[in-house]
Amino acid sequence: MSVSGDKIRHRYDRLAPWFDSLEGFLEGLIFRRLRKRLWAQVQGEHVLEVGVGTGKNFAFYPDRARMTAIDFSPKMLEQAKRKRERKQLDVHLDLMDVQSLAYADNSFDTVIASFVFCSVPQPRKGLKEIYRVLKPGGQLLLLEHVLSSNKMMAKLMNLLNPLMVRLVGANINRQTVKNVQACPFKSILVDPTSSDMIKLIRAVK
């Protein structure tokens, strides 16, 4: 379902003060463990987190890397800035859309995102921007929920998707692996332990 970036931004702005609480149960049960596995693969000196949100990944930031993080929602970024101050983290935060990154070509060793591309209006455009700002040999790390390979479940997800987009601005039926494969990455690996609907993806430029 195609929804404008402004509408999605407004929905995340609206949810920002309660976002951590809304996802608290799933975060503790599933997501935190997966985030830890994703961040364990980070390499290099300069790392970009796309879709920092409220700063849920701050606990996993590598000690020695120079960290930059972006989000397109001003209210979500405000939450991240407050959390940054409380945790006394050294991370540069920018208000920015992944579909139009204001960084030079070949800037980052690793770009990382968790549960972000469900909300990007033009995901392939955002992925191509990430490819552009990655250094040669740099890696993209993604943790994303995707359309089920089960036909009945996929049909249900497609049916429910318009409602989910209206409520929270997130598509539940994205085919993110195919979107990554449509970009000119040298190699793409989907973690074989990934579940049917939650994928850990590594792509190398």
TrEMBL record:
SUPFAM superfamilies listed in its UniProt record: S-adenosyl-L-methionine-dependent methyltransferases
Domain of life: Bacteria
GO biological process, one term: methylation
All copies of domain Methyltransferase type, residue ranges: 48-141
GO molecular function terms listed in the Swiss-Prot or TrEMBL record: methyltransferase activity
Keywords: Methyltransferase, Transferase
Pfam families registered for this protein in UniProt: Methyltransf_11 (PF08241)
InterPro entries membership: Methyltransf_11, SAM-dependent_MTases_sf, Thiol_S-MT
Name by which UniProt lists this protein: Class I SAM-dependent methyltransferase
Species assigned in the record: Methylomonas rapida
